[in-house]
């Protein structure tokens, strides 16, 4: 897997993000479904990979851990709260979950809550 530098850049240039690392299995199905995302903050390493992949969705909190943004207000969601993922950002969010070194980004299908990317995905 391609490594992303662990320091320095938050919400930086998309040109610096390496090629996607999404799974081959089931991805087409995932991409057609609405999904939601949440972060298990206690496992977050604060490396910032998710913020690099999808700065529209993830942001660092004052504690140095990554949080999901509340879509309208720009506020950060608390531990375990879920947010809808815009269709155009699904792949970026799934890639972030697949590459998350803390294994703590959960992407679940909106319709039935089944985890499609993250530590509890089949
Ligand atoms: S990729 Fe995972 S471990 Fe890294 S900052 Fe984001 S949520 Fe935390």
From TrEMBL:
Swiss-Prot/TrEMBL keywords: 4Fe-4S, Electron transport, Iron, Iron-sulfur, Metal-binding, Transport
Region (Disordered): 1-25
Keyword Transport: yes
TM segment ranges: none
Pfam families: Fer4_15 (PF13459)
CC cofactor: [4Fe-4S] cluster
InterPro entries the UniProt entry points to: 3Fe4S_ferredoxin, ET_Ferredoxin
Family annotation (SUPFAM superfamilies): 4Fe-4S ferredoxins
Its biological purpose: Ferredoxins are iron-sulfur proteins that transfer electrons in a wide variety of metabolic reactions.
Protein name: Ferredoxin
């Amino acid at each position: 897997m391609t490594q992303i530098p662990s320091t320095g850049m938050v919400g930086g240039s998309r040109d610096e993000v390496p090629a996607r690392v999404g799974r081959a299995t089931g991805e087409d199905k995932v991409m057609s479904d609405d999904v939601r995302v949440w972060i298990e903050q206690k496992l977050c390493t604060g490396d910032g990979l998710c913020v690099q992949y999808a700065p529209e969705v993830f942001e660092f909190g004052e504690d140095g851990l990554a949080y999901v943004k509340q879509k309208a207000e720009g506020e950060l969601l608390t531990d375990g709260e879920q947010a809808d993922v815009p269709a155009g950002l699904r792949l970026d969010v799934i890639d972030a979950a697949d590459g998350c070194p803390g294994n703590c980004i959960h992407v679940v299908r909106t319709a039935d809550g089944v985890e499609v990317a993250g530590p509890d995905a089949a």
